[in-house]
Design goal:
The complex is a heterodimer. Chain A has three domains: 182 residues, FAD/NAD(P)-binding domain (3-Layer(bba) Sandwich), CATH 3.50.50; 137 residues, FAD/NAD(P)-binding domain; 72 residues, Arc Repressor Mutant, subunit A. Helix content of chain A is 35%, strand content 22%. Chain A is built from 14 helices and 24 strands. In chain A, the strands form seven sheets. Chain A has a five-stranded parallel beta sheet, with helices on one face. In chain A, strands 9-16-10-11-12 form a five-stranded parallel beta sheet. In chain A, strands 4-5-6-24 form a four-stranded mixed beta sheet, with no helix packed on it. Chain A starts with a strand and ends with a strand. Helix content of chain B is 26%, strand content 28%. In chain B, strand 10 and strand 11 form a beta hairpin. The chains are: A alpha/beta, B alpha+beta. Chains A and B meet through strand 4, helix 13 and strand 23 of A and helix 7, helix 9 and strand 19 of B. Strand 23 of chain A pairs antiparallel with strand 19 of chain B, so a sheet runs across the interface. Chain B: InterPro entries: FAD-dep_OxRdtase (IPR006076), FAD/NAD-bd_sf (IPR036188). Chain B: Keywords: Oxidoreductase. Chain B: This is FAD-binding oxidoreductase.
Amino acid sequence: MRPLIVGAGPAGILAAQTLVNSGIRPVVIDEAPSGGGQIYRQRLVPDERSAKDLYGSEANKATALHRTFAGIRDRIDYHPETLVWNLRDKVADAVTGHRTRRIPFSHLILATGATDRVLPFPGWTLPGVFTLGGSQIALKSQGCAIGEEVVFLGSGPLLYLVAWQYVKAGAKVAAVLDTSPLSAKLHLLRGLFAQPSVVLRGFRYVTELMARGVAVRFGVQPILIDGTARVEGVVWRERGEEHRLTCDAVGYGFSLRSETQLADLAGCRFVFDTRDRAWRPERDGAGRTSMPGVYIAGDGAGIAGADAAELAGERAGLALIEDAGLLVDRARIGVLERKLARIQKFRDVLESAFPFPETWANSIADDVTLCRCEEIAIGDVRAAVRDQGVFELNRLKALTRVGMGRCQGRMCGSAAMEVLAAACGQSPDAAGRLRAQPPIKPIPMGVMAQEETA
Amino acid sequence: MSHALHRDVAIIGGGLVGSSAALALRRMGFSVVLLDKGFCGAQASGVNYGGVRRQGRAPEQIALSQRAHAIWPRLKDLIGVDGEFVRSGHLKLARTEAEMASLEAYATRVADLGLDLELIGGNQLRERFPWIAGDVMGASLCAGDGHANPRLVSAAFAHAARRAGVDVLEHTRVSHVERATDGFYLWAGSNTEIKASFVINSAGAWAGPFAEAFGEPVPLHAIYPSMIVTEPLDVFMSVNIGAEGGGIYARQVERGNCIVGGMRGEPLAEPDFSRPTGSGAVTIMNRAAALFPALRHAYAIRSWSGTEGEMADRNPVIGFSRTTPNLIHAFGFSGAGFQIAPGVGEVLAELVRDGESRTPIQAFAIDRFARTIQGSRADNGLEPKKRETAR
């Protein structure tokens, strides 16, 4: 048995640990130079920052996860800085630097995580604009802020977490502009019963931000990011009035979207998750996909956060062990499933507290860039609908090039789906989803093929 | 609610052949319905490499190819977009002496057919095309050939046909066709019934069963050519590149992306879709990086593959059925249909209108296989009621 785990974040590491505990030696492939995933990303070079500086309230979890990974290091085959760029018939093509090799596997656990959902608005392509995740990478991995005076904009729990991390690190945060209304936050009171620690932590972030003089605004409608050569300020509307704030960098994002291309290449069936407004691989409570031997865990299986990712990683590991005919701890499975169910319920609360900006797709101007790789504007999508009767995302890609560039739709796909569906007067699922093709991320033309490795 | 249509011509398959035939027929005044099981131009016509090339075709294809050659520069007038057609020239490389000899022999064979081929020796090649590296012995240049964007061209033909008044029914799979005394009856989609005087079978890789239903089995099988696309680069590749003996072809679009092909993918579980293989993709990338130094440090950003019908002799079937009057076949372009398809569309329209075409197509007759295929259904009388004397 030779399971392959893709991703060494909370889900991947816990899945690996679970397999190792049953005497199975998995292959673990991760794009990052060290384990932890996006949430518990490690710095590139050691510096004087402590775990507390880097991860704040989550320092203990981060440290524990890193320790877990170090503890199983000699009982797994670990390939850092390696990208699985293709999957087919139980063989993965994985590239490390300029070398690619074919890695056969018996089972597959996909723990591929998520990236920010990007909703374009005027000025979003100016230098100095980062996603929330990108802002976090800069801070955690490279120990630098994205600017001297940063505005965080968008929606979702990550908005406050990143802002708080920046403040803690000593960066100047000019404002946090939340596109969802303050009233939506009342939903969090419901969440107090389900996940009190998470909700209280969120409140703590906000109160600490305010205590340090950071302006926190709700119900913000972004108008534009101002600037010629780079970011000079942010203009927004709030309760009918226009506001402007000077800044030199903007971190923004509207919740997260799952990274699902490998699940697609693996042949998994997809379902539309109305809460996340996104397609994700179909899975059972244990992480089994529609493909035998293929499991999925963590944010790549639908957005649920780091705590859920650890639980789901372990659950998927146990499912694999069980399916392989080995013994599993039923009581433990019960505990994991109950905890996961509780988090799932809490996700509903979070989505109500940080609702998707429903009016965005119809209100965004035609001349705003939608797909920056291929330089396609919002209006190009609407024109394709109007002039060519397009209603499906792959057809839109074929006729307009949306999603055809370097990111293969990972960045623009969500927004393209929203604009296309809105222009057709349909719900977002009606637009379909972009089919994945290898390579899932760019790889060098001069890549050298290596023999299969054990 | 059932949907009934009565049209002069029903075309099965909305690829470039079916769409261009639909447009040409409509302009002659025929009423036309164009049917596709998916989106028009979403299969081989829309996802091929994009080579618009006459060079290298079998001599019997050249007349048809020349006819199409005259259409390509007129696309803007004809379908409203130019389809990114560029008359860049097509340069076919020879990597060995034998390949060079083969290029020379071909040039002699087609000398009178108007391709204006120019044979280029190794030294001159390095001088004129310094961006090509490696041991290339020489090449043959066809300056009038070029390339275009299949994604746009094929969909635009279907769209132009629709604007001209053709009933374009997408996502409408034809499940059954039969011939009665008063014409053809087609059942398509969930509830569409069509009566037509003529049927054109331009169903590409899916055309076999339609031919077979009329007693004309053909040696047609599916192939899955696959392509790799680089990130946008400074434009260096001034011509569409091919190679004698195959293995690689490449072009660079105005935006700067290079498109490289030469290997085949594999079908997915849902066989209408296919995907390049990992090792095939690496092989193409490596060949391209070796031949073009500018690509050595470039990144491949995407790949694609499509389903195409290939005939045993790599020539298409074009022309009237030998079993069934007013049934016309046009399929099996064997990975080389993109350039000639607009010409084929005109030919098909002439066949409907005049019963013959001014461009010779005898070499593509469907009965060229009758002698080689044992027990053809035409002979064992599967469809006795429908058999009538061939035209």
